[in-house]
Amino acid sequence: MRQRRWIKLLSDYDCEIRYHPGKANVVADALSRKVRDKPLRVRSLVMSTYTDLSERILKAQLEAVKQENVKAENLGRLLKPIFEIHSNGIWYFKNCVWLPLFGGLRDLIMHESHKSKYSIHPGSDKMYQDMKKLYWWPNMKADIATYVSKCLTCAKVKAEHQRPSGLLQQPEIPEWKWEHITIDFVTGLPRTSSGYDSI
């Protein structure tokens, strides 16, 4: 019915309707065609779960508070007054787990928050906002920004690496149908077998 209505409407105008079956219609109909992606298939993912994370945190914290390691941890004289020790023995700063420099826990947590199979490469601000609810260490925001800046995937999609888009201008709305016709030209497409590169 919809096609019949369109044909009736177009029959009032002097135009030619050409039908290109199947693959021959790639260039002419590229913008109006619905994208048909392959159906998603569920694959089993290898998910690394750290059941011993609290033990690793506690072990790293105990290593960090040793007299010879306090200076490397960059906590200085603030060590005792700022931390609370919960019943499980883990040290907290304002209800956030303190991740010491020892044990490689900071890199592990940042990796899981940024590059794991279940994350979407958030920027440094979003990643910091998410992580500061659970974890704390000195200079945390700067460390996260440095970590994200080294991510190759994030560097590829930054705005400065993308071509700037042209100015968008809304065409005037015609007062009567077909009084004004606007045509969009799309150029720079891959060449077809006929040699065309634009719509």
- Can you give the helix content as a percent range? 25-40%
Question: Helical stretch count?
Answer: 8
CATH topology of the domain at 53-157: Endonuclease III, domain 1
Number of strand segments: 4
N/C terminus separation? 28 Å
CATH architecture of the domain at 53-157: Orthogonal Bundle
What overall form do the CA principal axes indicate? elongated
Largest sheet: 4 strands, mixed
Oligomerization state of this entry?
A: single chain
Could you describe the 3D structure shown?
The protein has 199 residues and is mainly alpha-helical. It contains eight helices and four strands, in the order H-H-H-H-E-E-E-H-H-E-H-H. It has helices at residues 2-10, 53-64, 70-73, 79-82, 105-114, 124-131, 140-149, 152-156; strands at 84-85, 91-93, 96-98, 135-136. A hairpin with a 5-residue loop joins strand 1 (84-85) and strand 2. It comes from Tanacetum coccineum. Keywords: Nucleotidyltransferase, RNA-directed DNA polymerase, Transferase. Residues 105-159 form the Integrase zinc-binding domain.
